[in-house]
Write a structure and sequence with these properties.
Structural class: alpha/beta
Distance between the termini: 20 Å
Shape: globular
Largest sheet: 8 strands, parallel, barrel
CATH class: Alpha Beta
Radius of gyration: 17 Å
CATH superfamily: Aldolase class I
Bound molecules: phosphoenolpyruvate
Number of helices: 12
Number of strands: 8
Order of helices and strands: EHEHEHEHHEHHHEHHEHEH
Number of domains: 1
CATH architecture: Alpha-Beta Barrel
CATH topology: TIM Barrel
């Protein structure tokens, strides 16, 4: 039985003041949520105050990235132990914006996953095809290649500590959501990959969440797909009412 996971990626939005306002609203609304695991991923500057507010609530704290070394002369970077210290239990790794704008590769993603798991953080590892690759009909190959390289040499127990986010690049921030059929087919490819490589038990337990223009209006039909275990939500996570409706997709 895989617990549904709804994670909000606030990207580079919300100063500390507005982050506090947003998370206080979420905490008021979601204080008794038990069925769904809830994660918010504010920008680095707001992690500590948001982490204090979510204490004692069902809301968990996640970061949007990390660096693989624990400490050292790496100007501008943040390490896994630093994220743990401020209360993070999750971290997004390899988001397509980081791959596209900041030249992250499957290899750096792999190193970051190892660092996250070593510090007890749950990585939410993002993969997904561009529109060009989808139109070429090579989505499945793209996903398999990203999985092979981003998770190369990771053990069974490490894979079980990861969440995979399928995020088609053409659906992120565009309002063009994947249909349940498109998302379901990609999630099935990911689960089959996990089964071939790690066996049935790992593949059955692995959480695979969907991201790309998820809204209160479309979340229910996406969550009804057998292989979709949750959602990574960008734009719609910036408003307390819409994020709460997404978390409560089944009510
Ligand atoms: C994301 O940031 O991972 C994302 C899916 O964004 P949006 O929901 O805005 O498409």
């Amino acid at each position: 039985m895989r617990t549904p996971l709804i994670a909000g990626n606030w990207k580079m939005h919300k100063t500390v003041r507005f982050a506090i306002e947003l998370v206080a609203g979420l905490k008021r609304e979601l204080y008794d949520e038990k069925e769904t695991e809830i994660v918010v991923c504010p920008p680095f500057t707001a992690l500590s105050p948001v982490g204090e507010i979510v204490q004692g609530s069902p809301i968990k704290l996640g970061a949007q990235d990390l660096y693989w070394e624990s400490e050292g002369a790496y100007t501008g970077e943040i390490s896994a132990p630093m994220l743990k210290e401020v209360g993070c239990s999750f971290v997004i790794i390899g988001h397509s914006e980081r791959r596209r704008l900041f030249k992250e590769t499957n290899e750096t993603v792999n190193r970051k996953i190892t660092a996250a798991i070593s510090s007890g953080l749950t990585p939410i590892m993002c993969i997904g095809e561009t529109l060009e690759k989808r139109e070429q009909g090579v989505t499945d190959e793209v996903l398999r290649k990203q999985l092979d390289a981003s998770l190369e040499r990771q053990s069974d127990s490490n894979i079980l500590k990861c969440v995979i986010a399928y995020e088609p690049v053409w659906a992120i921030g565009t309002g063009r959501t994947a249909t349940p059929e498109q998302a379901g087919s990609a999630h099935a490819v990911i689960r089959l990959w996990a089964r071939e490589r790690y066996g049935k038990a790992v593949s059955d337990a692995l959480r695979i969440i969907y991201g790309g223009s998820v809204t209160p209006q479309n979340v229910k039909e996406l969550m009804a797909v057998a292989d979709i275990d949750g959602a990574l939500v960008g734009g719609a996570s910036l408003d307390a009412a819409s994020f709460c409706r997404i978390v409560r997709y089944n009510r």
